Amino acid sequence: MKRVSPPYFSTTAGAAGPNTGQFCGHCGDPSDGGPSTASDIHLRCRERLAMEPPRYCAACRRRMKVQVTPLGWSAECSRHGVLAP
Amino acid sequence: MTMQPDLQAKPGTILQTARTQVLEQGIGLSESQLLEILRLPDTELPAALQLAHEVRLRHCGEDVEVEGIISIKTGGCPEDCHFCSQSGLFDSPVRGVWLDIPELVKSAKETAATGATEFCIVAAVRGPDIKLMNQIKFAIDRINEEVDINIACSLGMLTQRQVDQLAEWGVHRYNHNLETARSYFPEVVTTHSYEERLDTCNMVKAAGMELCCGALIGMGESLEQRAELAAQLAALEPHEVPLNFLNPRPGTPLENQGIMDGRDALRAIAAFRLAMPRTVLRYAGGRELTLGDLGTREGLLGGINAVIVGNYLTTLGRPATADLNLLVELNMPIKELQKTL
Ligand code: SF4
Ligand SMILES: [Zn+2]
Ligand SMILES: [Zn+2]
Which residues on neighbouring strands pair with residue B113, listed in sequence order? Predict the structure, then answer.
């Protein structure tokens, strides 16, 4: 599985980080699609993403396999690779 | 005579009683006394925390025990603990996943490098099967080869044979929480009983492992039930009590339970310390959400003498450096490793 760092998921790369893509990394619902990084309805999700890893791939909404360790975490989408802080 | 003078006299009374009984004589408060602590007005809270801190210093010392926890098997649990995002019975976004042993050993090394003396391996299961027990044995051997750290486990309910095996393999502490008061337990868990939890706790103690038995508060229990829980834990005499505050998880039956009030959380910390003057009382999950950054300091100056460093099992904690720097600032040395073989 390829390992990708968060910049891969930036909007400029066409894919999406946990709160910058087509889907919210916390709740999995579509982001509003506007130019802003998170719609109002996902503000709370964005706050939550500071305290927990994303659970949904922001590019395809697949639930990711998330591993949390004492000093790190990783989240793997079967299609889009591994996201790590 | 009106009730008013009585009500006003109570707070001072219970704190004075606690000073003599707990601080000087080392005897934990009873359930009814704990309820009085939990009912103290906000104005009395600083005095309660100060007393709990004095009790901790006198009966436990100034050291703080640092631990890292890790999930070897996440999600897909057949039990229905209503607070838990790892139950396979709820529509939770947490996916089932196993951690491989090299990652586990790497995490143990990183944890030890923070100064932590405890590394707790946790699995989301009702109880371990042969596959998990084999994984645990393998993990313990690899960690012991490469890392100087005490290994603890939390693998659900155990059989006597499993208790004996873990003790033989050198697991020095076993975590199995009561979670909530006996009277509230059926509201929170229906797939196993409180008595089954107690059975595992008692077997662990009898086998000579240290018992780590914790609480999760803020699940809608009453203050009476919170006092009941503290008294029930005290009766078990665990070596350690991790104190968790509910972090309502999406998809669980408790997802809409509000976050508990920070002052109630601090009252609970003081009460738990006054119930168990000699126990390792650990700040565990939910403290960041319930109490914010300041809460860590208030807890450490209010009866807490152990922390989980870094992240939890499925959520993130404060950066490890934030807690470690705070310990330096508070002049609280990290407890050193004392491996008993
Ligand atoms: S037994 Fe443990 S992992 Fe399973 S649902 Fe209960 S708390 Fe979660
Ligand atoms: Zn969202
Ligand atoms: Zn994806």
Answer: none
- Chain B environment of A58 (Cβ under 8 Å): none
Q: The pTM is what?
A: 0.91
* Structural contact between residues B86 and B124, judged by C-beta atoms closer than 8 angstroms: yes
pLDDT of residue A32: 72
CA of B75 to the centre of ligand 3 (A): 20
The encoded tokens of residue B233 equal 């834990």
Residue pLDDT, tens place only, B92-147: 999 999 999 999 999 999 999 999 999 999 999 999 999 999 999 999 999 999 99
| Interface residues on B facing A, Cβ-Cβ cutoff 8 A | 68-71, 74, 93-95, 97, 99, 103, 106-107, 110-111, 114, 116, 250, 288-289, 309-316, 320
- CA distance linking residue B36 with residue B212, whole number of Å: 26
Query: Between chains, do A55 and B93 touch, taking CB under 8 Å as contact?
Result: yes
Q: Average pLDDT of B22-49? A: 97
The reply to whether residue B93 touches residue A70, judged by beta carbons under 8 angstroms, is: no
End-to-end CA distance of chain A: 17
Q: Is A34 or B317 the better-scoring residue by pLDDT?
A: B317
Q: For chain B, what are the domain ranges?
A: 54-329
Instruction: Indicate yes or no: CB of A70 within 8 angstroms of CB of B314.
Output: no
Alpha-carbon gap, residue B240 to B250, rounded angstroms:
29
- CATH code for the domain defined by B54-329: 3.20.20.70
